[in-house]
Amino acid sequence: MKKKINLSLNCSKSIRRRREIKYVVIHYTGMQSEIESIDRLKNTRSKVSCHYLINRKGLITQLVLDNKVAWHAGKSKWKKLNNLNSSSIGIELVNKGHQWGYENFSNLQIKTLINLCLNLKKKYKIKNENFLGHSDIAPLRKLDPGEKFPWKKLSKFGIGIWYKAKIENVKIQKSKRNDLFFYNLNKIGYRYFSLRKRTNKDKMIVKAFQRRYYSHKVNGFIDQKTLNISQFLANQQNLS
Question: Which domain holds residue 218?
Fold first, then answer.
């Protein structure tokens, strides 16, 4: 797999061990051009970086070596982990994002991403469920890689989790639907909400989940299908 090396100084000085790498976090650049994105990822004042950037033509630029911590995840949580930088590889896909004109990811981009993820999965023994989006780990701050990202396609290669085409209807009183949904999300790994009380921020969490698993209906409302998907994925955690 061909790649260009263009190293950023925005990373740890220390070397991490191979077994510390347990996650891959996928982002979009959210800037108007590839050049602008690379400039920012290398600018020491920005204090952000990633390990790999994949452009629209499917070409890879490596900005931080795998054995160093890149500054891509920011304030983040997943399961028992806070701040996922130390345990993850960050991959940026060139895309203008929601602010500048969100685009479909190119076929070449996704093909390269799949090959890169399969390589990383094998090299670091990364579990299927440990391929995450930035909005999974920072749902109150981030939208990327967004609703146009093809998680279902990647799941067919063992990259990220998905659900069956036909899943059972969860039968529960409507008044208890929200509590069950957030219980399921907690089991899957999502954070930034309380299991004991609902808040105004909960809608952002629901949208983050829908953006990944129910992308044509990102409205923050827990309908029957949203609940069904959460139940199926939560049950799969018992099998992993």
Answer: 174-236
Same domain, 230 and 130: no
Among positive and negative, which fits the CA dihedral 63, 67, 70, 73?
positive
- Strand-pairing partners, residue 77, are 82
Alpha helix (H) residue ranges in the chain: 34-42, 97-100, 107-124, 134-137, 151-155, 177-188, 202-213, 224-236
- Yes or no: say if 92 and 41 are a contact pair by the CB < 8 Å rule: yes
Q: Are residues 59 and 148 in the same domain?
A: yes
194 and 75, same domain (yes or no):
no
- Per DSSP, the three-state class of 52 is strand
Would residue 165 count as lying in a domain?
no
Of 219, 21, 222, the residue nearest 131 (C-alpha)? 21
Cis peptide before 145 (omega within 30 of 0): yes
Report whether 146 contacts 162 (CB < 8 A): no
Digit-coded pLDDT (tens) for 192-234:
999 999 999 999 999 999 999 999 999 999 999 999 999 999 9
Q: Which residues are catalytic?
A: 92
Prediction pTM value: 0.97
> pLDDT digits over 1-31, tens only?
789 999 999 999 999 999 999 999 999 999 9
Pair 207, 144 in one domain: no
Enumerate the β-bridge partners of residue 93.
Answer: 28, 54
Number of structural domains, the chain?
A: 2
